[in-house]
Amino acid sequence: MAKIEHQTLNDRAYAAIKKGLMSGQFKPGEVLTIRQLAHDYGISATPVREALQRLVAEHSLELLRNRSIAVPILTLDKFVELRRIRCLLEGLAAELATPHFRDSDLARLESTIVEIDRDIKDKNAAGYLKRNEKFHFVIYERAQSPHTLQIIQDLWTQVGPFLYCLFEDTGYLREANDGHRKIVTAIRSGKPEAVRDSVVWDISEAAESLMVRLREMEAEAALKNGPTLQTAPRRSRPAAARSPSGQGSTARR
């Protein structure tokens, strides 16, 4: 029984940290310490250590040269690739979910929209990120496709930490909930393709805002690091110093 309990604790630590990544609780480049996480979750260090190692193996976290574990920093190219995959898979999940929505699901989605409006008004970034993740996964969990859901969760562990940048874009925030309202309207229509398209639209609108910020961050990093040093080309030896045979020995006078 003790072994089963130990395994359960490991799974709980893994799920908690993964949920934190998905909902933007951790930021890109942030170093995660075993001691602090164990304190925050009220558990011992061992299950936290094993959970972090598992997330490193899944590429949700990265192991630094000094053996610390940190949240990866997204490059623009990687973000564009993740956006493409998200649009395909999350659009598919939304389409599959359409026949399975219940009135209680719609009530949860609509109440979450109200909460997100309040978070934006109160400038509550943590609340906004948490409820944005909640809204989307109410939809994806209705797809009744566990493997698709697992892959989507893994994608969110990579993009979730970067979503905090949305809260820095006041222009985007003014319309951030419009995509969610479009999704609910599409669900009420009962048309799977409309639900898929509305989810893809919501992802794409957020991605446009995030890509602007990513370009700015990469430009700032380039200025900070300076131009890349290049090795000077090797100069040829003067012709007079070469031997007639081309062996490179100096001719005798």
TrEMBL record:
Q: Does the keyword ATP-binding apply?
A: no
- Using the record's annotation, list all stretches that form the HTH gntR-type domain: 7-74
Does the UniProt entry include the keyword Transcription regulation? yes
* Stretches the record annotates as Disordered: 223-253
Stored InterPro entries: GntR_C (IPR011711), TF_FadR/GntR_C (IPR008920), Tscrpt_reg_HTH_GntR (IPR000524), WH-like_DNA-bd_sf (IPR036388), WH_DNA-bd_sf (IPR036390)
Q: Which keywords does this Swiss-Prot/TrEMBL entry list? A: DNA-binding, Transcription, Transcription regulation
Q: Which SMART domains match?
A: FCD, HTH_GNTR
Q: Name one GO molecular function term.
A: DNA binding
For this entry, the protein name equals GntR family transcriptional regulator
Source organism (scientific name): Hypericibacter terrae
